[in-house]
Predict the structure.
Amino acid sequence: MQPAKPPTEPTPSRFSLPGSVARPSPALQSKGVKITISKENYLKTIAEAESEGEAVIAATLARWLNVTAPAVTMAIKRLKRDGFIHVDSDGHITLTAPGREIANRLLNRHHLIERMLTEIFGMEWFKVHEEAEQLEHAVSEDFERKLIEKLGAGASCPHGNLVGLDTPVDRRRRGLRPLDEGAAGEKLSVVSVFERDREMLEYLENLGVRPGVTLDVIARNYDETLTLRVDGKSVQLGRPVASRVWAAAADSRTAQ
């Protein structure tokens, strides 16, 4: 199952507000660096891919953003020229301090919008990622501050994910592990789910597997599926999906 992808060249949101695009640092502003929605998306995607434990190269960005190799090559040249990324001799891409600042600002806005949509407007958890992808570019600094005042900072998003860099290594240090590693007889609590695949999220919702749910691992099957008991019913979950769900022992007090 492939992750849901944003459009090749994002267009300005119809909800755009003054000052909605993340501002570069004063040093970059003095050089006349312009931040566009496309640049924001590339920088955020680099940070998101890092959080999934991927080594970020041009092919990674092409896959995550569903764009052509030539489009990625041009974007990398612009981002490198503007001082937002570093590309080493092997083609590995990392964010510079200004690039990470912009990526983190966008990730934080995305996170706040997802929480706003669920906590204030009651939207289903599996729908909010795509909405936030559009609205994150339209949030002004004033509105961002109001969201923080209303919702608070530091809480996880509706998918259970933390804002900012949170790699698989970080999650394991907190006692989390992918659901596909669950052993028969274990009782586990679902903590977080990979959020970029709308089809997968709806599939999990239909099975009753969502953040906060406690389930029992009944069996690990020969065909690499898991038999789970969720809300009193038996369900089957394949490894490709189970590997995208992070869980903790149900009796643990794992820190988010």
In short: The first strand starts at residue 85 and ends at 87. The chain has two domains: 1-158, 168-249. Residues 1-21 have pLDDT under 50 and may be disordered. Strands lie at 85-87, 93-95, 177-178, 187-193, 214-220, 225-230, 233-238, 245-249.
